[in-house]
Amino acid sequence: MPQMPPDRTPLARIVNPDSVAVIGASDDLGKFGGRVIHYLIRHGYRGRLLPINPNRAVIRGLPAFPGIAAAPGPVDVAILAVPAGTLLREVEACAAAGVGACIVITGKLADAGPEGAALEARVAAAARAAGMRLVGPNCLGILNLADGAMLSSSLALEVERVRAGGIGMVSQSGALMGTLVSLGHRHGAGFSRCVSVGNQADLELCDVLEFLIEDAATRVITLYVEGLKDPARFAPLLRRARAAGKPVLCVKAGRSEAGAQAARSHTASLAGSHAAFAALCREAGAVLLDDPAVMVLAADALDRLPRLPRAGMGCAVIASSGGSTVTTTDMLAQHGLRLGAMGEATRAELRRWMPESHVHLPLDTGSFHDGTSEDGLGACIRAFMRDDDIGAVVVPMTTQPAMAARAALLPPLAREGGRPLLYVMMAGEVGDAARERLREAGFPFYDSVAHALGVLQALEAEAEGRGRAALPPPARPAGLALPEALPRGALTEEEAKRLVAAYGIPVTRERFAATEAEAVAAAEAIGFPVVLKGVSRAVVHKSDLGLVRLGLRDAEALRAAHAALLAAPVPLEGVLVQEMARGEAELILGARHEPGLGPFVLVGTGGIWVEVLRDVQLAPAPLRPEDARAMLRRLALWPVLQGVRGRPALDVEAAVEALVRLSWLAADLGPRLVELDLNPILLRAAGEGCIAVDARATLA
What we know:
The protein has 700 residues and is an alpha/beta fold. The protein is 37% helix and 21% strand.
């Protein structure tokens, strides 16, 4: 009987095994098993290699074995490239032989329907019972470039040599992982460990992320995420990576919010799972991107270029082509970037090389007194690198003489200046010599301005995350406590307002009335004009059914409105008589608990157009005041809050205070909070506060 290891095999041993068995090994490169053993040999695997094939005595010059039981142990990792029908038998044989882990390339399991899912569950159970780990199934394995262990069938390994470097990768798509490694290879990027986790029947994305955080060979981490098995682990791991100085870049598949149409509140439809995932990444310091190619190029920049000193800095665009500088500058705003504001010392240096009339950004070196020169180009870039407002330099290069020589100037300038310098080779194949010079120098390059600016946008987000990490944790305002008896289910407006008022959020004065006489008495006590609203737990948006009547100036108007509400096509529990509040702008504040990810708060342009305009920002709760201000600044409504066209500046600090307090309510309620809307909150002129005039909530 083989001796089982006392503990399950650690990931470090799976990634860098001393012995590998390839079940389904073949000489045929058209088969998965053939490519796996071919790539292991081609890329210099140094451990024991054991081909398993009952029909062959020798494969690739190595003795082959009829089954894993016949192979000399111990075996750290078995790679299975077998039909689904034989998979369970082979996994059970590996378990019996004491194999530490199986990498299962075999697909068509849980990814192919109920029958495949049932088979996958049996495979996972067999491995778990024996203490054996699984990678996959439906994966393309592991590329360990740091140690030369290519445990994969990916065609990215067709190149002569894949460069080792500091980029670690976890991907739920094997084919995409190989594509991104190949793309990075073309640009000279280097990888440490790349793991395709497939269906995550055992080892999952967070397990590998945790490994990469501790891995000395990995300096930057990239993730392709389709779904998280254990979402609660994700954000703490992102924060650990940030604390370790390892940027995490992520692409998340699946942006559609299925089921949003059935949501009970604005917040639920606007703050779906993808929006919550994006907000969580931002708060934890990870960079969420749309384009996997930009993710790898940005990771390469973070691995091989200096980092941005801080967020919010401008950039300098410099080239010998006016057309390339102008078009590049035109694209900055699309990526949330801006030109730097040059200081006087920078301007003085530029005057040495060009007329005063041309001393501006973007900079066309064709305006130099003696034409573009290497000395002038270097002097200007050095001046940009010293400027307090310039965080990065972008150099788009068009077809011109001496492209390779010009490109070779840049790597030492970037290292000397200590700021990122992004070189764009805009030409096609005639620029290949310049690209090769940069590859030889270990320096990144980009083939399009869009890719370069996407990378710079990611570097800006990484710097923003570093800055946020330096802030103190959120401080709880004094006197916050949940009411002792909380209602459950859909709350009335009155109940929801009572809940938020307990956390110090201003709400309108109002009274519930069961009869017309009670409504008149309530209005007289509050003071006309008033608002009359129908109360029904079954109605989400009262205005859609005509259940809100505004500006009622006397008892007669109130009685008429009351009669109209009673004629509405829904049964009412009564009416709410409310003061007629006024403000200068309408906000929505919302909160919800996202299963697995925790509590979130939302702020945006409020009122009846909230789901049409969709001008909202989302963040995990609780918040610091700085976080709340940053959310407001990201709104399209922000200029209105600042005061425009003669309108007063509004009480932003009151909105910040309300949002912070709501965030603590969301945090305190935890999973009990399904959703909560304050829409609208009326924001008044600076110093005059804000007030919630409508509220809706559902508690579990």
